[in-house]
Write a structure and sequence with these properties.
Blueprint (H helix, E strand, L loop, with lengths): L1 H13 L5 H44 L5 H12 L1 E4 L1 H6 L7 E10 L5 E9 L8 E9 L8 E5 L3 E7 L6 E6 L5 E2 L7 E9 L4 E8 L5 E3 L6 E5 L16 H11 L1
Antiparallel strand pairs: 1-2, 1-12, 2-3, 3-4, 4-5, 5-6, 6-7, 7-9, 8-9, 9-10, 10-11, 10-12
Helix pairs in contact: 1-2
C-alpha cells in the first residue's frame, strides 16, 4: 500500500517537467521521511490481517456449530407439524393408496426438551372424522444409542430416527426396532413402522403388521404412504377430540421427564 503511493508520486514528479536535480532531492527527502511511516503501516496491515483471520475463524465456528440432539429434536418436531395429504399418490395409484389427510400440531414442550405433538389421520373427504388419533413424543435418543431422535406414540411403538447423510433428499429416517411392537388387530401379533422426513416437507411412513408365521395381515405392500404438505395449514380453532385432553399430556410429561 505505502510502496504503491511512493511509486505514484515518483511518476507524477518525472512527468511534471521539474529539473532532474529537484526531482532527485525531492525523492531523497521523501524516502527518508517515509521509511518510518512505511514500517508503521506494515505493522498496521499485519494487525488488520490477524484480526480478519481471527474473525473468519470465529464466524466459521459459529455457523458450523455441531447440531445437538436437542436441536435435532426441534427440527424433527417442526418437520412433522402441519397438514399433509397423500392425494397425489392416491391419484396415481388409486387401487393401492387412499387419499388420506395427516394433521400434526404442537401440544407442549417438556422440561427435558422433548416435544409433544398431537396427531390425527383421516380420509381427505371426511377430515372431521379421524380414524387414528394419538400423541407423539419427540425426544433425543439416549447417549448409548446410535439414533438421534425418538418418535414415541403413546402405548404403541417407538421409531428411532437418524440424520440422513449429506447429499440425500431426506433429513431423517428410521424405523421401529427389530421385531416391532405388539399388535392384535386383524389377526396380527406385531407391527413395524418406517418413517422418512424429507427436506421439502414430505413425510413417508410405512406401517405393516404380521402374524405369528410372518404373513403380512395389514398395511400397504408396495411401499410407504407419501404425505406432501398442503398449500396452507392453520391450527386455529383446533381442539383435542374426545379422549385427548390436557391430562393426557400431563401423563406423557410425567413419563418422559
Amino acid at each position: 500500500m505505502v510502496d504503491g503511493i511512493c511509486l505514484r508520486e515518483e511518476e507524477m514528479s518525472s512527468c511534471s517537467g521539474a529539473p532532474a536535480s529537484y526531482t532527485d532531492n525531492n525523492n531523497k527527502a521523501r524516502s527518508g521521511s517515509g521509511s518510518g511511516s512505511g514500517r508503521g503501516s506494515k505493522v498496521t496491515n499485519a494487525v488488520l490481517k490477524a484480526l480478519c483471520v481471527a474473525g473468519g475463524v470465529f464466524l466459521i465456528r459459529k455457523f458450523t456449530k455441531p447440531t445437538t440432539r436437542q436441536d435435532q429434536t426441534r427440527i424433527v418436531a417442526e418437520a412433522l407439524c402441519g397438514e399433509k395429504s397423500s392425494s397425489e399418490q392416491a391419484a396415481g395409484h388409486p387401487m393401492t393408496y387412499f387419499n388420506l389427510r395427516m394433521l400434526t400440531c404442537p401440544a407442549t414442550t417438556i422440561v427435558n426438551g422433548s416435544r409433544v405433538l398431537y396427531f390425527e389421520q383421516a380420509f381427505w373427504r371426511t377430515p372431521k372424522k379421524p380414524y387414528r388419533q394419538r400423541f407423539f413424543v419427540v425426544k433425543p435418543c439416549p447417549k448409548e444409542m446410535k439414533c438421534d431422535v425418538e418418535d414415541i406414540a403413546e402405548h404403541l411403538n417407538t421409531v428411532y430416527l437418524s440424520k440422513c447423510e449429506k447429499g440425500r433428499r431426506c433429513l431423517y429416517q428410521g424405523s421401529t426396532p427389530l421385531g416391532g411392537f405388539p399388535n392384535s388387530w386383524n389377526g396380527a401379533t406385531h407391527c413395524t413402522s418406517e418413517l422418512t422426513i424429507y427436506r421439502n416437507g414430505e413425510i413417508h411412513c410405512w406401517d405393516r403388521a404380521y402374524d405369528d408365521e410372518g404373513n403380512q395381515v395389514w398395511g400397504v405392500r408396495e411401499g410407504p404412504y407419501e404425505f406432501k404438505p398442503a398449500p396452507t395449514t392453520t391450527f386455529r380453532g383446533l381442539s383435542f377430540p374426545l379422549g385427548f385432553s390436557s391430562s393426557s399430556i400431563g401423563n406423557l410429561q410425567s413419563k418422559s421427564v
